[in-house]
Amino acid sequence: MRIRCFRFFFTSVLFALFTVGFYCFFGNNPAAMAASDNKSHTSTIYDTHDTPASLHGPLHVDGAVLTDSHGKAYSLRGMSTHGIAWFPQYINRETFRTLRDDWHVNCIRLALYTEEYGGYCSGGNPDELKSRIRKGVDYATELGLYVIIDWHVLSDQDPNVHKSEAIAFFHEMSALYKDHDNVLYEICNEPNSSATWDSIRTYAQEVIPIIRANDQDSIIIVGTPTWSQGIDQAAAEPLPYDNLLYALHFYAATHTDWLRQRLVSCTEKGLPVMVSEFGMCDASGNGSNDFSQTSQWLDLLDQHQIGYCCWNLANKAETSSVIIPGCEKISDWAEEDLSESGRWIRQWFRSFEY
Question: What are the sequence ranges of the domains in the chain?
Answer without folding.
Answer: 1-37, 46-349
